[in-house]
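Problem: given the chain below (727 residues), write out its structure.
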Amino acid sequence: MTARRWTLVLGAAVALITLALSSIAPPLATRATDALHDAFMRAQPRTFDPDAPVHIIDIDEVALQTFGQWPWPRSYLARLNDQLFQHGAAVVGYDILFADPDRSSPEQISESWARFGGPQLELPDLPAHDAIFATSIGSGPTVLSFAGAPRGSVPAAKAGIAFTGTRPDAALIGWPGALDNLAALQEPAAGLGLVSLGRGSDGIVRAVPMVSRLGDSLLPSLSAELLRVAQGAGGYVLRTGQGSGEGGKASPVALKIGAFEAPLDGQGRFRVHFAGHYPQRITPAEQVLSVSDHDPALEAAVAGKIVLVGSSAQGLFDIRATPLSDHVPGVTLHAEVLEQILAGQFLARPDWARGTEVLALLALVATLTLVLLRQRPVLSLATAAIAFTLPPAVAWLAFGKGLLLDPLWPMLAVLGLYLPGTTLGILAKERARRAVRDRFAYFLPPALLAQVADDPAGALTPEGADRTLSVMFVDMRGFTTLTENMPPADVVRLVNGFLSTVSEALVAQGATIDKFMGDAVMAFWNAPIETPDHATRACTAVPAVTRAVDQANLMLERQGQPPVQVSIGLNTGPCQVGLMGSQNRLSYTCIGDSVTLAARLEGLTRLYGVGNCAGPDSIGDLPTGLIAPQLDLVTVKGRSAPIPVHSIAPATPETRALCHRLAQARAAFLARNWDTAELAFAALATQALDGWPLDRLAALYLSRIQTCRTTPPGPDWTGAHTARDKR
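Solution.
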């Protein structure tokens, strides 16, 4: 399977796995999402409204020092309750349980003294503290609290809870029993609410149950009951995800409390958007109990408000942890809930959230998969970074609008796809590099091989490319004559040694070996990696090949084998280069008229009796130390226009002088000065160019001179020679 197919399979697998895991909601993932939302809340806490109609009376450490340790006599609480109503409180709720009789009451003290044979105290006929407190509770709208417990009787609700659809018992948080108050206190109370707040697995309170199941009853929370009593509402309506009359499992989505409605999660909980600690919402209990008559400041604090009585004292063990703080009194949480419901500011997870998250996950995985298929590391990294940060960024913006979206699973999907996907890409590129190295190891210089391996698709141009190349053909001269009496094994050894010698010399000069053709080698420059000085490098390769063959001949001579000679054809011009061939067999090669001309020039070396022939575009920027005299002006087979033919040689003083004489001889020939030209070429016949005698070249010109004397050329004669053979 190819890397592209593996990437597609990986993308599909990551999408399916993350979707499956998100539907299961593992605890670790839930904690991660909660931690992210906690960070959002710390950055964007709810704006506190100092005019919110909710106030807290705090039984703090100062109050305990002033009025004694807890529990206080309930006569103290009766005074506290009376003071609050006298100063205009709309409703007073207690985040305190009164499960046992007041032991500081007169009758309790008398009984305590007599219990173990002590003296019978004669106390005046004083009212019981619980009776005093019960009278105070009945004097104004007061709400008491109870707590869920593993056992105990369930108190009777003060108001009923209606519901739409099927009753959602299975979805609600429940307790078998309850820890409630003395019947004498609970009976006159206007309301009764649950104070069990619940907490996450990490001990942090993020959501508060608004409706809970105790035994077979549905009961409201303290905050819900306070809001109901404050409005004088008769009951609640619990709205579920089902319509009325529909069967199946139901889950609560909202609780209607009089004129207000609070959104709920699937377990009947209200998600709290905490504002944090604000002294403006709190009055110490010590100040309330110390008021002797009328206190305008207390009236301003509690008049017309829902008042909660609770404790921040550490010893009373009602301290909770929230996303904003790990030291928050439980009563503050009830106040935060009430403030939000009254202000209509909610944190809710809408019905469409899950579908949106699934679509986002699939879209991000699909996008990143398509980018990974392109195998561009920088683009893949940038796309993955954007895809990874986009979900939390959207979730952050949604949080500011009161919406809870879960960015975790799209983020995990991006991470789970990018890391192995990048690994697949790296492995695929490494395989491609290895294939390139294997294919070109013997045909490219190491520097070019490394560049091609880094970008095989771009360098090998599978679609083909137009490029100016310098193409060279190197052939073993006189191969048939040389090997006609050799055993086959010696012929193979000779050819392999020759080809290896020539190839190494060419590769050392930056050439790309195109192919081996029997005893010949074809090479080119400027592909697959562009090389601006390719013509110069190709010209330098001519004497390099010659020197390499001379070194090889010394070894052949020691082995008792005949020496070899080479003929070189070099031309520079436009070509088409790339991977070519059949579907099952491709090779990196070049084609074009310039390639054909290079082959023709190699064939002309035999005509002129020289070691190499080069086209005019190859010698345009001849390197220092080389000289390239023009041998002829030739029209080769397949071309109509003649081209100058040069031969490259070392630029020694002797060679420069010889080239000067050759240029003078050709000038006389072209000027139709036959006698001068004849004498000049006759003298050149005894000379040699880079070890190659010029007798063949001189004989060609002497023959042409005789022809011109016999049949004088016309006025448009250019001195060009027409080569009849392909080579």
